[in-house]
């Protein structure tokens, strides 16, 4: 769970590492804040902060004035509390009944997606003599978790009866906010407003309302409401190619390695498992000590490019667990030369296209075997 955080003067530093530029994360957060005006910002830190390292990024976001932190699972929240983080934390994922006392013990805000779970939270809070902080979750068209918008009155009604619960927020999640065509997203927002009218009709104070992920906050200003929940945008990557880029952000993560081995490969001598690639003339090939065991997708075999000494070169043959090979043709590189796998003109979008996936998976797939270095 915790990423290995190493110092740059550690003798054991692996040539393969991820560099996270904390200054750029701060700039991205500032750009988002500027765009959303008075709305609060919940920085989304799930999946090891999209591969950037949960604990260091969380500390940094708190320093940069994040109003709220969002994570997927209880365990991530407990880790952040143990690290001394006191900023409010919302656990976006579902809850197992037996976990509720742990949420309360660690002062984590709970997502309540149904009347049944709400009652369990109320009972657990009563038993512990505390008040649970809860955000109600409304499903307006994602069919993941949350009470359906057309039955939501039951949940809101029930929440008024729970004496040991403070309903601090109410939220929903977009399914298609990253598309060019936004009619389903508009429909989801309308459904959410219909649910919220429950409070106005009864002249009750409205809890903190939120629905916008990165794509929502980029593409639909009227979705910002009281709080926005940027994930991928915070890390400087756009949710999709179609999504309007109304905020300028920069990627904060660079993935690097070094040339470990140099050789000349003769024609008729195929490279790597399965012998999927060979040259018709002698070529210079270098081996880089990074592979799918680090999260460099095997699907990148014979597809991806890397950058060495400012030149782009193709990955040839199958990506192995701990190594990959790069064809320099007649280019020059020496053992120890820096290799950029991701960063600069090799974007998460480009890597996602090569691997047949989305940039989210490119970032979250870089696993904890790869040390993170913070700049
Ligand atoms: C992951 C997630 C987000 C952030 O999504 P991005 O597309 O990365 O901005 C926001 N809200 C919820 C509920 C999420 O699960």
Key traits:
375 residues; alpha/beta; TIM Barrel; Lyase, Ornithine Decarboxylase, Chain A, domain 1; nine-stranded mixed beta sheet; nine-stranded parallel beta sheet; 11 helices; 22% strand; disordered N terminus; binds pyridoxal-5'-phosphate
Give structural notes.
By secondary structure, the protein is an alpha/beta fold. The protein has 2 domains: 22-235, TIM Barrel (Alpha-Beta Barrel), CATH 3.20.20; 253-374, Lyase, Ornithine Decarboxylase, Chain A, domain 1 (Beta Barrel), CATH 2.40.37.10. Helix content is 29%, strand content 22%. It contains 11 helices and 18 strands. The protein has a 9-stranded mixed sheet, with no helix packed on it. Strands 2, 3, 4, 5, 6, 7, 8, 9 and 10 form a 9-stranded parallel sheet that branches. Strand 8 (165-171), helix 8 (183-201) and strand 9 form a beta-alpha-beta unit. The chain starts with 16 loop residues before the first strand and ends with a strand. Bound molecules: pyridoxal-5'-phosphate. Pyridoxal-5'-phosphate (PLP) binds at residues 44, 46, 92, 173, 213-215, 229-233, 239.
What's the structural blueprint in terms of helices and strands?
Elements: E1 17-20, H1 22-36, E2 40-44, H2 46-50, H3 54-63, E3 68-71, H4 74-82, E4 89-91, H5 100-105, E5 110-112, H6 115-128, E6 132-139, E7 147-148, H7 152-161, E8 165-171, H8 183-201, E9 208-212, H9 214-219, E10 227-228, E11 253-258, E12 261-265, E13 283-288, E14 305-308, E15 311-316, E16 324-329, E17 338-342, H10 348-355, H11 359-365, E18 372-374
Parallel strand pairs: 1-18, 2-3, 2-10, 3-4, 5-6, 6-7, 6-8, 8-9, 9-10
Antiparallel strand pairs: 1-11, 11-17, 12-13, 13-16, 14-15, 14-17, 15-16
Helix pairs in contact: 10-11
Bound molecules: pyridoxal-5'-phosphate.
């Amino acid at each position: 769970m915790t990423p290995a955080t190493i110092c740059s003067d550690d003798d054991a530093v692996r040539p393969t590492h991820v560099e996270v530029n904390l200054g750029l994360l701060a700039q991205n957060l500032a750009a988002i804040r500027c765009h959303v005006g008075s709305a609060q910002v919940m920085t989304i830190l799930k999946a090891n902060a999209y591969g950037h390292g949960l604990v260091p990024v969380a500390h940094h976001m708190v320093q940069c004035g994040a109003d709220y932190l969002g994570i997927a699972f209880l365990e991530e929240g407990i880790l952040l509390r143990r690290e001394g983080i006191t900023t409010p934390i919302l656990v976006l994922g579902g809850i197992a009944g037996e976990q509720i006392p742990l949420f309360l013990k660690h002062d984590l805000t709970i997502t309540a997606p149904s009347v049944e779970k709400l009652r369990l939270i109320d009972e657990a809070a009563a038993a512990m003599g505390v008040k649970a902080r809860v955000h109600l979750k409304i499903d307006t068209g994602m069919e993941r978790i949350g009470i359906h918008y057309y039955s939501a009155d039951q949940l809101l009604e029930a929440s008024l009866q729970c004496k040991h619960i403070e309903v601090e927020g109410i939220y929903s999640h977009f399914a298609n906010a990253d598309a060019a065509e936004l009619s389903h997203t508009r429909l989801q927002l309308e459904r959410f407003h219909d649910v919220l009218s429950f409070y106005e009709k009864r002249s009750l104070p409205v809890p903190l309302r939120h629905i916008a992920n990165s794509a929502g906050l980029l593409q639909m200003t009227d979705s910002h409401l009281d709080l926005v929940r940027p994930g991928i945008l915070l890390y400087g990557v756009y949710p999709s190619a179609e999504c309007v880029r109304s905020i300028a952000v920069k990627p904060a993560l660079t993935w690097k390695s070094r040339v470990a081995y140099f050789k000349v490969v003769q024609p008729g001598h195929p490279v790597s498992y399965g012998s999927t690639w060979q040259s018709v003339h002698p070529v210079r090939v270098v081996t880089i000590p990074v592979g799918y065991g680090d999260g460099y997708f095997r699907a990148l075999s014979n597809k991806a490019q890397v950058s060495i000494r400012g030149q782009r070169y193709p990955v040839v043959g199958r990506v192995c667990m701990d190594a990959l090979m790069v064809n320099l043709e007649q280019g020059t590189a020496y053992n120890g030369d820096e290799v950029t796998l991701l960063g600069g003109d090799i974007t998460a979008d480009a890597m996602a296209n090569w691997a047949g996936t989305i940039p989210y998976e490119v970032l979250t797939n870089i696993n904890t075997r790869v040390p993170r270095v913070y700049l």
